[in-house]
Amino acid sequence: MISLPTPAIIPLRGGPVARWGVLGPGGIAEDWVSALHRHTDQRVLAVASRSAERSAAFAARHGIPRHYEGQDALLQDPDVDVVYIAAPHAQHHPLALATIAAGKHVLIEKPIALDAAQAEEIADAARAAGVFAMEAMWSRYLPQSHLVAQLLAEGELGDVRLATAHLGWQWEYDPADRNFDPAAGGGVMIDAGVYSLWFAHSVLGAATAVSARGSLAPTGVETEAVILLENERGAHAAVSASCTIDTPGLAAVHGSTGSVHFETSFVFPAVLRIARGGDEVQWRDESGLVGRDGLAWQAAAVATYLAEGRTQSPLHSLDDSLAVMRTLDEVRRQIGSL
């Protein structure tokens, strides 16, 4: 009979509360603020957009007391503790640097930047300023990710030799869409593939060898990628990303004495099957959160980290973000989209 540890998660309620500001009130910000306000004690104090009308409408929808036109007004608000950057990919780097320069803590929607060079600038600036900075790799804070991390740390799967992660969602090709615009950070790797690379990194650590094949859109951004990774111990990961097909988003970890199989998408609150010694047990997220409701976990974690005086996440550090971005850059270089 397999006995599983209880995931060591930070509770959604009853812990420290931060005063949040939001830059970029788009689609992901809608889901993020909604998840926060419905499932945690965290509250958004202010929102800013280049459009005063847009920020006012967003604030009205979510009960946010302050709304601003332009980033500077929000960054100068002395009551805002931490800023969530939810703008499109190409704006992550400049907005993160501006937030750090204003002395604010920052949570940057994934990917942390367009490439590793930009990510290094953000990390260096945050370290120099002594502020908290974190990439919003929200799936790392879901209960299933805590469980997998504990199984790995306790050696319950033995010598882990292989991780797999395959993620795809279908986009209709439109050269005017930012998803297909190289200057806007288009391409499937930076949007979806970063999840697959993160999963492999979370299991095996930094990749020391990368081999990638893929396909390109007429605009030059990648639409599919199949990637083989190797770490310093010679363990491997096989991951993929596609915007030409939909996939169920399944992932797995295989060790010498046990394995973990995601029966639903590894990106969202999930159902797992754990096999060891001829036995199997199913585990499912019992929080009641589904889909992007799971964004709530990372916000509660950030508030706790701030209360503890941390300057980065102990679960997905700035170095982790940099390692994933370096691998992502190498994948795109090999495919020909970078």
From TrEMBL:
Signal peptide: none annotated. Residues 19-134 form the Gfo/Idh/MocA-like oxidoreductase N-terminal domain. InterPro entries: Gfo/Idh/MocA-like_OxRdtase_N, Gfo/Idh/MocA_domain, GFO_IDH_MocA-like_dom, NAD(P)-bd_dom_sf. GO terms for molecular function: nucleotide binding; oxidoreductase activity. The keyword NAD applies. Pfam families: GFO_IDH_MocA, GFO_IDH_MocA_C3. Residues 148-260 form the GFO/IDH/MocA-like oxidoreductase domain. Keywords: NAD, Oxidoreductase. Belongs to the Gfo/Idh/MocA family. This is Gfo/Idh/MocA family oxidoreductase. It comes from Microbacterium sp. A8/3-1. The lineage of its organism: Bacteria, Bacillati, Actinomycetota, Actinomycetes, Micrococcales.
